């Protein structure tokens, strides 16, 4: 294998209804048959990928926006959030009635019960409301948090907590990651382990958390449904996820 392709999940492999288009499934299968390595790069936790990875026969992935990297089923890079700074963020968010979901490798918990913004965000992912456990972060390695607040608070949290990046993925929520963390960092760790060069690396994405990744790899592809900021940095813009976007781009680059 001389090339590797990383795919984002939501809005890239999966459409808005969290369904995998048949053309995408066929394209991934052809990539693998052509000897091209296929991996995932996502903000999601590993436990959220089990069904998708099984369906696509994928065993390597970058999760939590670069904080957790798995190669052939084995974790090869892990960087959990520091507990001390996380406690300060939790205290501040609680004062503003902004819930936080704590994401670990195999489960997630939320610190506030029955909050409308959490219902909205989880519903958009086709996930149920997490179990409530405000102290979950104290006994588990937390790799990412979901902070539920509207866009008007983005500047507030960015200014007050410079040790974090706040990546908006929903009108009511942002991913909370280390300031020096990103999908690009995770991909660098992954290809170092896999032995690929960055020049032979492709990545597909649509969201704000994909920008660093698309800029880092040899060829960054933005989906037709991507945000304008993502399209601006992409090397190539393909069609919408529901209009055979992945298939069309891979055909364009003669990878399938």
UniProtKB/TrEMBL annotation:
Keywords: Hydrolase
GO cellular component, one term: cytosol
Pfam family, one: Hydrolase_3
Molecular function GO labels: magnesium ion binding; phosphatase activity
Domain of life: Bacteria
SUPFAM superfamilies given in the database record: HAD-like (SSF56784)
PANTHER family named in the record: PHOSPHATASE YKRA-RELATED, PHOSPHOSERINE PHOSPHATASE
Name by which UniProt lists this protein: Cof-like hydrolase
Organism field: Listeria grayi FSL F6-1183
């Amino acid at each position: 294998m001389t090339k590797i392709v990383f795919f984002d999940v939501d809005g890239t492999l999966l459409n808005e209804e969290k369904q995998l288009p048949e053309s995408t499934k066929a394209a991934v299968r052809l990539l693998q048959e052509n000897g091209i390595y296929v991996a995932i790069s996502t903000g999601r936790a590993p436990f959220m990928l089990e069904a998708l990875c099984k369906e696509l026969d994928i065993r390597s992935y970058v999760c939590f926006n670069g904080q957790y990297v798995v190669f052939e089923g084995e974790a090869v890079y892990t960087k959990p959030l520091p507990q001390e700074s996380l406690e300060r963020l939790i205290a501040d968010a609680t004062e503003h009635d902004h819930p936080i979901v704590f994401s670990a490798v195999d489960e997630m918990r939320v610190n506030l019960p029955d909050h409308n913004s959490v219902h909205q965000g989880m519903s958009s992912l086709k996930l149920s409301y997490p179990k409530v456990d405000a102290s979950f972060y104290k006994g588990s390695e937390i790799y990412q948090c979901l902070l539920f607040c509207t866009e008007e608070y983005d500047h507030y949290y960015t200014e007050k907590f410079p040790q974090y990046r706040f990546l908006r993925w929903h009108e009511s929520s942002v991913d909370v990651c280390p300031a020096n963390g990103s999908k690009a960092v995770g991909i660098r760790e992954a290809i170092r382990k896999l032995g690929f060069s960055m020049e032979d690396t492709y990545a597909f994405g649509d969201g704000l958390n994909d920008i660093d990744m698309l800029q880092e790899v040899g060829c960054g592809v933005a989906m037709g449904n991507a945000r304008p900021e993502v399209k601006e940095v992409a090397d190539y813009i393909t069609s919408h996820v529901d209009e055979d976007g992945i298939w069309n781009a891979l055909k364009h680059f003669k990878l399938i």
